[in-house]
Amino acid sequence: METFALKKVKVEQLRVGAYVEKIDHSWLATPFLMNKFKLTSDSQIEKMKKAGITEVTINTEKGLDPLEMGPCPLPMKNGPSPSPIPNPQSPIEFTALPVEKLLVNTTLPFDVHIKKEGGYDLYLREGLPFHSEVQRYLESHNLKTVYIPSGQRGALASYEKETEKAKELYGEGIAPGFESAEKVARYNEYINHYVPMDGHMVTPGTKLPVNLYVERDTVVTLILARDSVIPETAVFCERSNGKLKENLLIHAFELEAYKKHIKDMLQKNTRSDKEGALVLRTALIKENTKLITKELMNNPRSGAAMREAKDSVSLMMDSILEAQPSFYSLTRITSHDYYTYTHSINVSTLAIGLGMSMGMKQSEIFHLAVGALAHDVGKSQIPAQLINKPGKLTEEEFKSVKRHVTLGYEALLQNEEVSKQALFPLLQHHEKMNGKGYPHNIGGDKIHPFGRITAIVDVYDALTTERAYKKAFKPFEAANILSKHADEYDREILKKFILMLGKQNMQAHGG
Which CATH superfamily is domain 269-508 in? Predict the structure, then answer.
């Protein structure tokens, strides 16, 4: 792209047919899926004005140059109005596609639109996965047909051909790549018996009091014996820098030794404003919270486990209050697969950040964060092969998994360390504002603010967490999906959440 093709223009100067190359807002604070797109309607320009966008960069090689067209023609006082400038882009034609032809966890090579009054709304853009959360939304709204641009029918034909085999497996509840019972057993073995380790714990030149393993395509291999000096090899140096996707693991049998090691490091790691020390302390707090949350999930009725969990929440809150970069570090995905306890930490951290953005008192945020940390404790009472099933759940299996809400609630009711406020995130994180959630199908004002907050951050983290059989959404993609599902969430809280993500994104990248 040549730089001379780029021009900055005021929003009021824009015309249909111009190609927007960049918007002068963070992507999370704009009403658009992408910062690069061609203007096809005046309503898009109006959306920019309402969002407070004053200036954009256009690419004159990809679209019209409104500055060369002169001002918009005004109606004549006498005689007919001049003919409008023709739309340089012909109206898009669409092809109907039954939703049942889209396979969960496959990447779609075409844009997906939903038909709405007055036209078609872009729902998923080309290259995004058809996530189970997206399928759930379409089913709950009785949307059985979606639409793709007719110009992408070739991509649709290729998709249907490439997914013929996957469709057969999908009908049997099996994800592609997990056709063999051996692969499924291996996956469950590593998920259930190993714990992911944060890459910051493997500093070359130091020792670990536990055996260290690496997972590649569900195969777990020992790479370092306990008490060995960590060498300066790629698997350690690049993993600590976040460049490799393999999970570093420890066996569940060695959790106590690892937990003691983390606590000793936390005591030695004094508070510091230096970036390296701050990053390490944040990683230690998250690692400590992860191990405590795992213990809580195994025994949710334990007062001692809940007291430790509450202490961990206090540490996380203090860390975020002392240094905002801690928030971004705490929410970064450090394992490349789904674990209920790491998901719980992410949900709790996001809830803390959102509570702060909403101006909540610290005491309120504490109860919210404790409840968010414990929101999925009931999953420990659901068969692990269902929680970690690499494929679509049957209707009966899904009913069984949905019981985790009431099972967790009943368990924590017996724990004297849990406040009544902290029970709302657990009991209501699957309720929807439109009343189409579970377990009680309540909606609107019947959902406590803690339940509304946790519902948003729970789905966001699920969308942005990768699994061995499921591609994750990037943050801006997940935020866009949430905005498409606005009838399910508290609109004001959702707006604050998206603005909070945008602010954190800019801070994390020096914006």
Answer: Hypothetical protein af1432 (1.10.3210.10)
